[in-house]
């Protein structure tokens, strides 16, 4: 991404009226020519993943912010085509349709894109987006990446067709748009309440808009998309008074043309409701940029107004604060390494701090899965939990990078959702307080257990354990009734049964671990037994996890490479899922026969010839290395399993292969959906040199570092430093490891060792050290062999 940097700075200079925070300090001596300000290494982080299959967005968001203010390049996609535009923006697209307030970061499904706005200059104001292939056919505009800039908390672009300069920034609950209109042309905004991502016919159930006496524009929308009956309210406050407006209901052809001329204050007729609303907002000739401050609420319009008022100031103030917040958050882990790896690392770290996002109003109110309004007491409610993805590395990373309050907020949000859920269970894949029932498992359970076992306070552990047990025993969910009766999920009763069996077993193990730590021996015993249910679907004869029928027989025919939605496995096949026993890899290895057999099978997975297999029908299957699929989550721990088989140097080889082929600091730099930070969290951990294969074990498996030096400035005030002496492309192996100056002979770290601070030092080598961390006692945790 070095090439676009100078042009990005040019766009910044063109459209900004003040310098960003990093440009207000003197550059390091010799680091730039002629005093040119030096951007931080995370300057272009938001652009990484906006092309290819990353599904990230480039727009403005504060850390874990409620507003994700970003450009949308296409919202009118057909259902199958929406996958490519899940975040609204795709780097390859030539036009911008407008700027909307809500977006997912790297999801495998599209939705949101609420309350799209687009500036228009001149006498004619089109109220349809138009055809991207026909310039001038609507309000959308062409743009160039040479006049586009994205950095954490700030986005800038010039709309080529109109010449309007657009800037976006966002605070925790507000967003601010600033538009610079060409001189001599009237300024307008189009507010399109029809526009949405995953925008199939009939998605908008109802919407409304009105202008209040003080000029604040408010309204609402209820949609039927990925999440059913999702209600969202907005408040918009422009910096200039309206000189005119027009509302149109495109469904009923009902039009209200409001006042022309100066604002007359209260205008009872300045409102409209319907299912297909679009508004034209006129501001006349402006001699300064138009600022449009926005906020949303799941509760009501007054909540949106209160959120608007909760963060005072305009573009400058909000932008400066959010830039400072991002610089502090990302600067908490200073690193040294190759320029490409440093940029890749910070792009990944940035993307781990977008979700779960704040969703309660400034007064604590939030709308829950029961569609009722609740009040968060003592915590900030967060939503957007992609738990099937993020339990693996994203949430464990947040336990190291965020303070206790933030992690307690996450746990309290999960518990609060369970307590008002119509089904009494924890969220599965939740956004905006609504449940989508997407993916499998009850993976809020390991998130809560891992937080508790790592010492996070600020939530009620008894309420948490109760929520976890209720989720794990709710029979109607995902074949759990059969799972509890048979010890596995039968494929003739429930799709994706093989995957569900092993994922339930892992979740159950984390319940057992937390219950045991709390002294709840009966609960611990029940769920420890269930944690071994993975064995009931593991076929030792073939060496693969397989789906079984209610009568106990394995389903046939069996093809370990087959991937079909709704079949035996979830977004994968037997090759990936046969390794999913993070709580007891040693037990699974024993069934395979020996460490040598395990290594042979792992090699067979990575070296598999896929030339005769077509996976084009499976959207999430990306980033293939043989049958290892890094672009989707079930494979993410597999490279670390060589260490469980006594060959950590093979883990080191595979990690180099994965990092070099799956990540780069470019728009197409992610091989698959970032999935709310999971792909990025994998890279952050792996670059540091360790990874949480089994959240709930309080261990991190040591891999190999990809940075010369990194320092985690931990929330508790301690610092944990990682040093890689002699790191180079040739020196890809770990020669030896020391922890606080003493030799470390085992292949894992404990959580307590990291949070205590200290130094982990790797001495890198061109040849593998085949004696380090190979013995049984030196290997990471497995429940069947655990003595600790």
What is the global morphology? Answer: globular
Helix content: 25-40%
What's the architecture of the domain at 3-326 in CATH terms?
Distorted Sandwich
Measured by DSSP, the beta-strand proportion falls in 15-25%
Classification by helices and strands: alpha+beta
Give a count of the beta strands, DSSP E runs of length 2 or more: 37
Oligomer: single chain
Radius of gyration of CA atoms, rounded to a whole number: 26 Å
CATH class of the domain at 3-326: Mainly Beta
Uncertain segments are 1-34, 259-268
Largest sheet: 10 strands, antiparallel
Chain-averaged pLDDT = 92
By DSSP (H or I, 4+ residues per run), the number of helices equals 19
Ends distance? 46 Å
Q: Within the largest sheet, what's the order of strands?
A: 2-5-6-7-8-17-12-11-10-15
- What is the CATH topology assignment of the domain at 3-326? Beta-galactosidase, Chain A, domain 5
Describe this structure in words.
Helix content is 25%, strand content 22%. Helix 9 packs antiparallel against helix 11. The two termini are 46 Å apart. Strand 30 (690-691) and strand 31 (699-702) form a beta hairpin. Residues 1-34 and 259-268 have low confidence and may be disordered. It is α+β, with helices and mostly antiparallel strands. The radius of gyration is 26 Å and the shape is globular. It has a ten-stranded antiparallel beta sheet. A six-stranded mixed beta sheet has the order 18-32-33-37-34-35. A five-stranded antiparallel beta sheet has the order 4-9-16-13-14, with no helix packed on it. Among the domains are: 3-326, Beta-galactosidase, Chain A, domain 5 (Distorted Sandwich), CATH 2.70.98.10; 630-788, GH92 mannosidase fold (2-Layer Sandwich), CATH 3.30.2080.10. It comes from Sphingomonas kyeonggiensis. One of its GO terms (molecular function) is peptide-N4-(N-acetyl-beta-glucosaminyl)asparagine amidase activity. This is Putative alpha-1,2-mannosidase. Residues 1-23 form the signal peptide. Residues 46-297 form the Glycosyl hydrolase family 92 N-terminal domain.
